[in-house]
Amino acid sequence: MEKYARQAIAEGVKVPEEIVVNVDSEIYRVLNLHYNRNNQIEVSFSLSETVVCSIGCLPVFVLAQWKRLLLLPIPRTFFNNSVLKMIAYTCSV
Q1: b/e for 20-42, b at 16 or more Cβ within 10 A?
Q2: Could you say which DSSP state residue 37 is in?
Q3: Measuring CA to CA, how many Å separate 33 from each of 9, 12, 22, 29, 51?
Q4: What pLDDT digit, counting tens, does each position of 60-90 carry?
Q5: How far from each other are the two terminal CA atoms of the chain, in whole angstroms?
Q6: How far is it, in rounded angstroms, from Cα 51 to Cα 38?
Q7: Which percentage of the chain shows pLDDT scores above 90?
Q8: Which of 15, 50, 69, 77 shows a CA-CA span of 20 to 30 A to 86?
């Protein structure tokens, strides 16, 4: 799963909802082959949703989202003296 999360991030996926998993997807095929070797079980339609949710919860994907947030510019309002004083007061209480 981590491999696919890293691959999705490298391809520019920003949120897990952008990931498309269907029966033709490599991850779908790999998971089905691993857990259902003899095709004895009919795969549920919710497998795709579960895969997307699982990838989105991986630390790799969460870390990439945080890195993007940290790289955003700081809004100019935070440089206002009254805002800085308010932050300093809040932190000292």
Answers
A1: ebeeeeebbeebeeeeeeeeeee
A2: T
A3: 24, 27, 15, 6, 15
A4: 777 777 677 666 777 777 677 777 777 777 7
A5: 44
A6: 21
A7: 0
A8: 69
